[in-house]
Amino acid sequence: MALTGLQIFKLLPKTNCKKCGKPTCLAFAMALAQKKANLDECPDASEETRASLAEASAPPIKAVQFGTGDGQVKVGQETVLFRHEEKFYNQTVVSVTVSDTLSGDALKARIEAINALQFDRVGTHIQVNSITIINESGSADSFAAAAEAVKAASSLAMILVSDSADALAAAVAKVADAKPLIAKATADNAEAVARIAKDNGCAVVAEAESIESLAELTEKIKAAGVEDIVLSLNETLKNRLYGLTQIKTLALKKSFRALGYPTISCVLEGKAEDQAVKAISLICKHSSIVVVETAEQYAMLPMLTAIMNIFTDPQKPVQVEPKLYAIGEVTDQSPVLFTTNFSLTYYTVESDAEGSRVPCYILVVDTEGTSVLTAYSGDKLNEKVVAAAITKCDVENIVKHRKLIIPGYVAVMSGKVEEETGWEVIVGPRESSMLPKFLQEIA
Question: What structural domains does the chain harbor?
Answer without folding.
Answer: 5-56 (1.10.15.40), 64-310 (3.20.20.20), 324-442 (3.40.50.11600)
